[in-house]
Amino acid sequence: MNGLNFNFLVIGSGIAGLNFALQASRHGTVAIVTKKELMESNSNYAQGGIAAVLDKMDSFEKHIEDTMKAGCYLNDEKAVETMVKEAPKQIERLIKIGVGFSKCKNDLCLTQEGGHSKRRIAHVHDTTGKEIERALLHQIRHNKNITTFESHVAFKLMTHKHICTGALVFDSENEKVIPFISKATILATGGAGQVYERNSNPKIATGDGITMAYEAGAEIRDMEFIQFHPTALDKKDAPSLLISETVRGEGGILVNSQGKKFMKKYHKLKDLAPRDIVARAILNEMKNGPVYLDIRHKGSRFIKKRFPYLYEQLWWHKIKMDKDLIPVSPAAHFVCGGVHTDLNGRTNIPGLFAFGEVAHTGVHGANRLASNSLLECMVFSSRAVLATKNYIRKKQLPITNYQLPNPKSYKLKAVSSDDINKIKSSIQKLMWKNVGIIREKEKMEKTLQILDRYEADIKQILTKGINKEILELQSLCTVAKLITKSALKRKNSIGTHYIQS
């Protein structure tokens, strides 16, 4: 049987995948397959922090209530309770592996973001995700039981009698398809922000994990709940740089084109209202001109110390955040739904596990509470270690009369980038316009018809050959259809799903 064999196959190299791989390596061999470099992920872009009850004035009950309220009480309360109560020990674990959280004297500095009733967000200045990944990668690079495969695109789960046995992976540098055979296959592929024209995600966030799971028969839930971050940089010829919610948590104020504060008329929490409300408020204000984020009143010394990364990034775009207003508007940010799992990462397909943004545990409900995402990654990837360890001990790879897919059946001829980019751009614009922050039934129905046509075009291109771009486009279209279909099924507006009648 040709192929690479491992006990654990981890697809994705964000914080969820890295955290799991490090712990699972004590129980067997681990392969980490990632489309680009190990540090390229949504986690690495996370500026804000990780939420946990770490102050005596706070409580688990308050964190649970804030999470449930943000999710419009569509959350799975057991999942929320599990995540919140296991949060402090995950912070302790991160400190032990070398994460340098910002300190205020001898204690962790805690900040506040929209929807939180207390200051409970531990952070590393404004580069928390990057620092956590750095610490995890340092451990992984010195681990002999872990093998990493960069520039490898997983595109199809292998199954036998409805049991997952690994994945087919395209090595984009050497242009060949490789079967990865595993006793436990883990999806930690992150989100799908690239489905939308304006988004805060890296280029690799094309929903590959959700697509692979869906095609293999996994249960997918709540795909209509796409969170749009309210404040991404809105400047011509500049990327949609995420302006962390912690900027508002530290006193930043949203103002309209007349320089007037406006959030008071939309929500009692004003600038710290839940993200879906702030995003729609900004859209409404933008009908009369641009919207800005103003933190100048906090002073240069505070801003440069608290937000060194953001200050530098904005400086490159000729904006000094201690002296200038920051032009902002919403951008697609986070998938609240995904591959449905239990509290230990199990899907409805034996041998297939998922956690992180690709997964649907139920913790987010209709809208994610700020800084619960890194927490979700840590808690549920850690919980999955025991479940996968027990699974591979009890289950043997079903290789009897099992024929591996033939890698040579996939053509590897060059595919026109122009054709791929044209369809990709069209899907992104279509989704942003018709299945975005504000939705209409008729427009979504029309969108689904158009996506069906694009899907047929993509299948035709695939007959000519495969490469990384066409595989990502296939995922993009599949996820776009899942979002649209789910949005059409939910008739009432709630959370991030807002229907205009």
Brief digest:
The chain has 501 residues and is an alpha/beta fold. It has helices spanning 15-24, 60-70, 77-85, 87-96, 128-141, 208-216, 246-249, 275-285, 300-306, 308-316, 373-394, 417-434, 441-462, 468-489; strands spanning 4-11, 30-33, 50-51, 103-104, 107-108, 110-111, 121-122, 146-149, 152-160, 163-171, 176-187, 220-221, 226-233, 253-255, 291-294, 326-335, 338-340, 352-354, 359-360.
Kindly describe this structure.
The chain has 501 residues and is an alpha/beta fold. It has 3 domains: 1-225 and 336-405, 3-Layer(bba) Sandwich (FAD/NAD(P)-binding domain); 229-333, Flavocytochrome C3, Chain A, domain 1, CATH 3.90.700.10; 411-489, Fumarate reductase/succinate dehydrogenase flavoprotein-like, C-terminal domain (Methane Monooxygenase Hydroxylase, Chain G, domain 1). 36% of the residues lie in helices and 18% in strands. It has helices at residues 15-24, 60-70, 77-85, 87-96, 128-141, 208-216, 246-249, 275-285, 300-306, 308-316, 373-394, 417-434, 441-462, 468-489, and strands at residues 4-11, 30-33, 50-51, 103-104, 107-108, 110-111, 121-122, 146-149, 152-160, 163-171, 176-187, 220-221, 226-233, 253-255, 291-294, 326-335, 338-340, 352-354, 359-360. The strands form 5 sheets. Strands 1, 2, 8, 9, 10, 11 and 18 form a 7-stranded mixed sheet that branches. Strands 13-16-15-14 form a 4-stranded antiparallel sheet, with helices on one face. Strands 3-7-6 form a 3-stranded antiparallel sheet.
